[in-house]
Structures are given as structure tokens and as C-alpha cells.
């Protein structure tokens, strides 16, 4: 507001991208630039967005620990979008003991904790797609993206 921000600079901010972000090289770049212009330490987690939640949780644990120790002990604020939020929440849940003192908070935007309505509708009988389209979509969603 009026050229001033109220985000504290005592944290390192970690942006955690969502599904298919590997196919968009500019994902979160503008947001990171805004944080940097405000003088805030901000990083984008380079996780494989289509990997399992468990794998990304482990990779995020590594990122968090690296940022924490590399910053001289600044706590990390996690900002997750879409599947990235699910990955971040899983990291905090699975590795709660290791991350307890290293993470200051978790902010989530558009995270599908209840599943994805679009994917569910495509796969549900009598919804958006006919039987053949549902089979193709089920293959894409369940086999390729997992």
C-alpha cells in the first residue's frame, strides 16, 4: 500500500509451484521478482511437479533445511500454489520433527485437498465425457501424471 509492504524480512520465502509447472518456465518468476524488489529473500522450489506428494515432500524438506542453514538460521515461510500446497503440507506433516524450528508458516492458494473436481468429473460416469474419452483421460491422469 502506497509503495510500502508489511511482509517481514526476517524470513526466507519459498514459493512452491503446482502441477505441470515444469512445463512453464516463467511460473512464479514475476512473483519472485516482486518479492525481490521489496528486499525479501525469495526462492522458487524446483521440484518435479508431476512427482508423487511423498517425493516432493522429501525434496521440500531438503530445500527448507538448505535455505534455513544457508541464511544463517532465518525461518522459512512456505507459499504453495495448487499441488505445491499439498506437497508443502505433506512435508510439514511427514517431517514435522525435523522442520518444526525451521518453518515459520504455510500459506496456500487453490490447493486441491479434497481432490480435483475437474478430474473427478471427467472420470465420473455420465458427466463431461463419454466412455472412450473417460478411458483416455483416466490413462492420462492415473498413469502418466499419477
From TrEMBL:
SUPFAM superfamilies: alpha/beta-Hydrolases (SSF53474). One of its GO terms (molecular function) is O-acyltransferase activity. InterPro entries: AB_hydrolase_fold, LACT/PDAT_acylTrfase. GO terms for biological process: lipid metabolic process. This is GPI inositol-deacylase. It comes from Genlisea aurea.
Amino acid at each position: 500500500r502506497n509503495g510500502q509492504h508489511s511482509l517481514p524480512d526476517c524470513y526466507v520465502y519459498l514459493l512452491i509451484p503446482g502441477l505441470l509447472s515444469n512445463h512453464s518456465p516463467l511460473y512464479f518468476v514475476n512473483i519472485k521478482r516482486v518479492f525481490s524488489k521489496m528486499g525479501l529473500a525469495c526462492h522458487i522450489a524446483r521440484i518435479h511437479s508431476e512427482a508423487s506428494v511423498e517425493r516432493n515432500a522429501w525434496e521440500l524438506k531438503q530445500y527448507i533445511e538448505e535455505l534455513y542453514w544457508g541464511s544463517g538460521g532465518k525461518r522459512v515461510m512456505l507459499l504453495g500454489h495448487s499441488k505445491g500446497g499439498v506437497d508443502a503440507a505433506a512435508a510439514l506433516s511427514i517431517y514435522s520433527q525435523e522442520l518444526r524450528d525451521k518453518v515459520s508458516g504455510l500459506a496456500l492458494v487453490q490447493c486441491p485437498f479434497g481432490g480435483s473436481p475437474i478430474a473427478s468429473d471427467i472420470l465420473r460416469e455420465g458427466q463431461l465425457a463419454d466412455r472412450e474419452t473417460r478411458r483416455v483421460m483416466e490413462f492420462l491422469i492415473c498413469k502418466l501424471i499419477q
